[in-house]
Amino acid sequence: MNKLALAHDLEAAAEQYLERIGHADEFGAVDLALNLLDDGVPAETLLLDLIAPAQRRVGELWAANRWSVAREHGATAVSDRVVAAIASRVRSEPVLGRVVVACTDGEYHALSTRLLAEVLRLRGWRVDFLGASVPGTHLITHLHQKGPDAVALSCTLPTRLPRAHATLTACQAVGVPVLAGGPGFGSDGRLARLLGADGWAPSADAAADHLQAGGLPSSPASMDAMAHLADEEYTQLVRRRPAILTGAMDALADAYPPMALYDERQMESTAEDMAHVADFLAAALYVDDVAVFTDFVTWTCGVLQARGVPPEALVRGLRVFRDQLREFPRARRLLAEGIRSAHAAETDDADWENER
Fold it and tell me: Which Gene Ontology terms cover its molecular function (predicted)?
């Protein structure tokens, strides 16, 4: 199949595939993918150019409030089954080394990691795919038992970076290099480098290319790179998180009297949002990276606006945290930047509304 015909077939199939997974039509989605495979579309192309883009679109549809959480989860479950169907149809004899593929502890976004595992298998690697949220101690036990050439460690959310750091450090301590991947490490891989990963790749095919090109040079994090942790702001924020959240919710209720009229669901949603703010703030403190926090604030504003909630609601929460954390100068600077980002999102939304 020539490239032009292949691109046309995939473009035509993409909408059908999204529709089928959106209706949790497992058999229809599997049939579509396997028919393309039978027509000569390479398995790796199906994984990376059909399933992966569809999954990104699923996330966008949820964020835009066009799909429910249930529909998003259903679509993801179907795509996971499609990946399994392709993997069972196309099997490559392992001729290279062994790679352990896993999500960091607490990370449950596993589909992209599964795609990487299957791409590596297609390229000739023997792969141990350990799935979502692998505790660090159990991963190290597995490394001792299997003696792999490398670990491919995925982190989707920056809030998991402290655990990812502990895991990759432990892997390196037993002599196994770590290739990091996933948006949690930054779109440019800067946080993977900061934490001392031996390599970073932005996509599954890039990760496979990286491993195939040769070994991973050891590059442990320098003490200077994490010197900011000496102020103990991260440690104290995590340790005092329950009390900080309770105080923030009480202060928010005092500052915003209409909260007294919230029903149970609204109160739970507000508490969840405040917890997310605390967790992303902690992650930004850990890596001393303002973009970790401001990117979260900008994304959250978009999600809230899609649900009819103005950014000012988030700004109120950020101000409450800023007032609560008077002994945390670095956190207060991050919160100030977050407030600016939320105001910018509010301005952008107003401009868009005026143009409609």
Answer: cobalamin binding; metal ion binding; methionine synthase activity
